[in-house]
Write a structure and sequence with these properties.
With 215 residues, this protein is of the alpha/beta class. The protein has a single domain (3-214), classed as Aldolase class I (TIM Barrel), CATH 3.20.20. Helices cover 35% and strands 20% of the residues. The chain contains nine helices and eight strands. The chain has an eight-stranded parallel sheet. Helix 3 links the parallel strand 3 and strand 4. The longest helix is centred in the last third of the chain and has 14 residues, at 151-164. The chain is globular, with a radius of gyration of 16 Å. Bound molecules: D-xylitol-5-phosphate and zinc ion. D-xylitol-5-phosphate binds at residues 7, 9-10, 31, 33, 64, 138, 140-145, 175-178, 195-199.
Length: 215
């Protein structure tokens, strides 16, 4: 069964409670994008917002770190309420294995993320360790971008490699430009978790948009 993770980056920050309740009611995970203005050319939100959402959340918090030195902050995000924590391979390189272990030692599911221009083979050495993989289908940094079609082959390649390693239970999460129009193709390629920001929160009927992505 596919899981839907609405990205709070596209939520209504003046009425966050309304959007948190929508996720509680209709979706599976809260996707929280943490941007530092350094790893990506944008700044989103930090601990106070994550903690506030954690208090009201009845679904797990999936925290996507787009920051340099993720190892410095994973503990605080775990304390803030993250159930899943992912960091970019591009920000960690050969430290990736150690950071996956650091996250797991905090009792949190650990994920590794790559941007669309990073060869998928770069993360193969970490596939035996990761609890999930996050593949960007746009360049990290902003909501509302267009889905990059080549992402489908990348999802299939990582899915095949995970299966080859006997890790069928490890889900691939896909993030960027996903909506009802391409959800089926992304799922067919091998995704288990779909992140969607604008397609949910900018929709006239967000509950219906989520339902359409599940079908
Ligand atoms: C982009 C973020 C995404 C973003 C997705 O850097 O990682 O999670 O919020 O937004 P949409 O679904 O609008 O592309
Ligand atoms: Zn994200």
């Amino acid at each position: 069964m596919i899981q839907i993770a609405p990205s709070i980056l596209s939520a209504d920050f003046l009425h966050l409670e309304k959007d948190v309740e929508l996720v509680n009611r209709e979706a599976d995970l809260f996707h929280l994008d943490i941007m530092d203005g350094s790893f990506v050319p944008n700044i989103s939100f930090g601990f106070p917002v994550v903690e506030a959402i954690a208090k009201a959340a009845r679904r797990p918090l999936d925290v996507h770190l787009m920051i340099v030195h993720p190892e410095k902050y994973v503990e605080r995000f775990a304390k803030a309420g993250a159930s899943m924590l992912s960091f970019h391979y591009e920000a960690a390189l050969e430290e990736s294995g150690a950071i996956l272990e650091q996250i797991q030692a905090l009792g949190v599911k650990a994920g590794i993320v790559i941007n669309p221009d990073c060869p998928v083979q770069k993360i193969f050495p970490y596939l035996d360790k990761a609890d999930f993989v996050l593949l960007m289908s746009v360049f990290a940094g902003f909501g509302g971008q267009k889905f990059i079609p080549e992402s489908l082959e990348r999802i299939a390649a990582v899915r095949a490699e995970l299966d080859r390693r006997g890790r069928k239970e490890v889900p691939i999460e896909v993030d960027g430009g996903i909506g009802p129009e391409n959800a089926a193709a992304v799922k067919k390629a091998g995704a288990g978790i779909l992140v969607a920001g604008s397609a949910v929160f900018k929709a006239p009927d967000p509950a219906q948009a989520i339902a359409a992505m599940r079908r």
